[in-house]
């Protein structure tokens, strides 16, 4: 097994004089500065890409709206590929069947393109009266990841798939905004979360730790909110595991690669049976032309460097 016999700061190659400690520290400082320059370039590229692609995505949204069940099928396929389908219950799946559209924008692209907005648009359904669920994920300047606010979901009587967590999360968030640490509303939310999330829609309630609320500490924290044995949990009550990671997957993989996920569904269904009931182009495009178009979309592959054969790449948010 390879091992390093001494610290890089203490010695050079065999026969050479020890590395000067002051020089070593100076190099480390320069490396840190260079990393910041890399980060700035990444942000500039993201800003330019966002601004140039925005009108293209707007045109694509119009086209996909003509395909019945485009988003329910796409979302189901991506959920399996990105391994978050374990959080989707049968009732969640039924509600997600009324999904009309998904849209991702970066409303502050000119100033902070790492902040993004995810919108889920729904047809009228039996579960809630909302037509759009909008959730913003804000990049925090301190480098502690993203934060958000719980979305107010107007559940119909007896149809709350979160089993009361929606209301409890809203009350707990207002308490946190007021500077209260582990107040009664947060304790009530923690009791409701005793057995973990009951629905995918808990994700809309995820907030993360807010720097502005003084909830971020130097030691940081894992996305699952676990702490060392005996250590008191200080962060917000976790209502959905790794909520930030899922948001990044939707914004940087599911949404930009939606046509590819959809064509994967088409190809899978064609292999199993020659039945196109779930796929319907609401236009005058004939069936042969539609198949040709879908084939061409499939050949384009995935954006953001995802490998067609290996499936979607799991991405981390640009910090």
UniProtKB/TrEMBL annotation:
InterPro entries in UniProt: NAP-like_sf, NAP_family
Region (Disordered): 267-319
Acidic residues bias: start-end ranges: 267-290
SUPFAM superfamilies linked to this entry: NAP-like
Database matches in PANTHER family: TESTIS-SPECIFIC Y-ENCODED PROTEIN
Family: Belongs to the nucleosome assembly protein (NAP) family.
Name of the featured protein: Nucleosome assembly protein
């Amino acid at each position: 097994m390879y091992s390093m016999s001494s610290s890089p700061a203490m010695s050079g190659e065999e026969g050479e004089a020890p590395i000067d400690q002051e020089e070593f520290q100076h190099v480390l400082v320069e490396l840190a500065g260079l990393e910041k320059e890399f980060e700035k370039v990444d942000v500039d590229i993201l800003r330019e890409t966002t601004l140039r692609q925005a009108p293209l995505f707007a045109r694509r949204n119009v086209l996909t709206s003509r395909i019945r069940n485009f988003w329910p099928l796409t979302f189901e396929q991506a959920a399996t590929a990105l391994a978050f389908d374990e959080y989707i219950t049968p009732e969640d799946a039924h509600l997600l069947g009324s999904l009309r559209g998904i849209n991702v924008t970066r409303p502050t692209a000119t100033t902070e393109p790492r902040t993004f907005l995810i919108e889920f648009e729904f047809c009228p359904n039996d579960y809630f009266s909302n037509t759009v669920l909008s959730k913003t994920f804000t990049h925090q300047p301190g480098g502690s990841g993203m934060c958000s606010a719980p979305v107010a979901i107007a559940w119909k009587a007896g149809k709350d798939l979160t089993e009361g967590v929606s209301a409890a999360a809203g009350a707990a968030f207002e308490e946190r905004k007021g500077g209260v640490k582990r107040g009664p509303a947060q304790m009530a939310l923690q009791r409701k979360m005793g057995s973990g999330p009951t629905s995918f829609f808990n994700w809309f309630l995820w907030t993360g730790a807010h720097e502005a609320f003084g909830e971020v500490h130097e030691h940081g924290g894992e996305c699952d909110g676990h702490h060392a044995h005996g250590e008191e949990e200080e962060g917000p009550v976790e209502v959905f595991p790794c909520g930030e990671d899922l948001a990044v997957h939707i914004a940087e993989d599911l949404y930009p690669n939606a046509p590819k996920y959809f064509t994967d569904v088409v190809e899978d269904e064609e292999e199993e049976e020659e039945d196109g009931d779930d796929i319907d182009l609401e236009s005058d495009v004939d069936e042969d032309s539609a198949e040709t178009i879908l084939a061409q979309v499939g050949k384009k592959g995935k954006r953001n460097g995802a490998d067609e054969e290996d499936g979607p790449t799991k991405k981390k948010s640009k910090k």
